[in-house]
């Protein structure tokens, strides 16, 4: 019940101001967002790759309101890629981007987001890696898939995300699986209406398995974005039945969530990629993590009271 309330708050400017100023917030935020600057995350990238993990890097931010912010987002990714170059990690460290941060919702936003994300995809390719387009709320997805198709003409390894909770996703999965795309499948983290999305956990989980089967049996590269132990076992079984080798799919989890499981799957020989977010505009990302698990909210409120 709390999840939708927290997701609604994630869109409120007033809540944003209250939360960011609250004592104790930083301590809880750090669990999910381990730094604000590139300098903070380079040691983390070195540490996690040294332990056999792969990463997808997210500069936090979304729903920007000016073109200057969109250019700044592009530049933040270019700076990161520049810093990755000497590390020579290739596809072990890729990028995740939210197109709303690249200007998608502004006037002429579709073209603006495409123009801003293209240099990031080009720079990523130059250091031997790639970019995955995150999925945001359902109203943004037609534009995201069109940008994905456009980028794939020159950079076929560009990935995208699909969300099991949306009714449209089974059809999207069939299309993407047939055209050989890299696809991350997640349950979905936004507040979506009943007209477009399953609302019950058991329905979402069942849809996740149906979509996963399509991806595993298709021509593309499935990326299983989930911490759910049941879905992880099912993914392993579906991959085995589809005759996929361990390097023909991968698991992905968020930094700070079930970290032991990251290492366990990597030790079993799986490709395990940790989605690592950093930056100053962490509010939306952080609120979605609170909404996913009410215990996080209790911990957060306790730490506010103790510090306050
Ligand atoms: C790599 C990655 C990328 C993602 N990208 C997107 C995206 O582009 N668009 C989008 O809409 N969503 C994205 N998500 C979020 C996703 O949609 C879910 O909201 C999130 O993964 C929780 O679902 P779950 O599959 O882990 O299952 P759940 O049933 O929510 O969780 C299973 C178990 O995982 C643990 N867990 C899950 N979430 C948390 C948490 N916040 N804090 C502590 N423990 C937790 C708990 O032990 C829980 O019981 C992404 C998730 C991952 C892992």
Automatic annotation (TrEMBL):
Substrate binds at residues 98, 288-289. Its cofactor is FAD. It catalyses: L-proline + a quinone = (S)-1-pyrroline-5-carboxylate + a quinol + H(+). GO terms for biological process: L-proline catabolic process to L-glutamate. Keywords: FAD, Flavoprotein, Nucleotide-binding, Oxidoreductase, Proline metabolism. The keyword Flavoprotein applies. Its EC number is 1.5.5.2. Residues 45-299 form the Proline dehydrogenase domain. Gene3D superfamilies: 3.20.20.220. It comes from the Bacteria. FAD binds at residues 163, 187-189, 201, 226-227. Binds 1 FAD per subunit. It holds the Pfam family Pro_dh. Pathway: Amino-acid degradation; L-proline degradation into L-glutamate; L-glutamate from L-proline: step 1/2. The keyword Ligase does not apply. GO terms for molecular function: nucleotide binding; proline dehydrogenase activity. InterPro entries: FAD-linked_oxidoreductase-like (IPR029041), PRODH_bac_arc (IPR008219), Proline_DH_dom (IPR002872), Proline_oxidase (IPR015659). This is proline dehydrogenase. It comes from Streptomyces spinoverrucosus.
């Amino acid at each position: 019940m709390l999840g939708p309330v927290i997701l609604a708050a994630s869109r409120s400017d007033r809540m944003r101001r209250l939360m960011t100023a609250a004592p104790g917030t930083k301590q809880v935020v750090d669990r999910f967002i381990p730094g604000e600057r590139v300098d903070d995350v380079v040691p983390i990238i070195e540490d996690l790759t040294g332990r056999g993990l792969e990463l997808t890097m997210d500069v936090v931010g979304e729903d920007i309101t000016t073109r200057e912010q969109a250019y700044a987002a592009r530049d933040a990714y270019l700076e990161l890629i520049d810093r990755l170059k000497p590390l020579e990690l290739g596809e072990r460290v890729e990028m995740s981007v939210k197109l709303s941060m690249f200007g998608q919702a502004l006037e002429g936003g579709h073209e603006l987001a495409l123009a801003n994300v293209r240099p990031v995809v080009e720079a990523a390719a130059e250091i031997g890696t790639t970019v995955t387009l995150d999925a945001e709320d359902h109203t943004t997805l037609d534009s995201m898939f069109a940008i994905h198709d456009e980028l794939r003409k020159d950079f076929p390894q560009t990935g995208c995300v699909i969300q099991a909770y949306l009714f449209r996703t089974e059809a999207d999965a069939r299309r993407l699986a047939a055209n050989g795309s890299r696809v991350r499948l997640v349950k979905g983290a936004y507040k979506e209406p009943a007209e477009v999305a399953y609302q019950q956990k058991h329905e979402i989980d069942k849809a996740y398995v149906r979509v996963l089967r399509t991806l595993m049996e298709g021509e593309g590269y499935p990326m299983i974005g989930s911490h759910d132990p049941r879905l992880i076992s099912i993914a392993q079984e579906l991959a085995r039945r589809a005759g996929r080798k361990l390097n023909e799919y991968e698991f992905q989890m968020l930094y700070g969530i079930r970290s032991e499981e990251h290492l366990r799957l990597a030790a079993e020989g799986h490709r395990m990629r940790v989605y690592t977010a950093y930056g100053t505009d962490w509010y939306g990302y952080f609120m979605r993590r609170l909404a996913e698990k009410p215990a996080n909210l209790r911990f957060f409120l306790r730490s506010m009271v103790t510090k306050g």
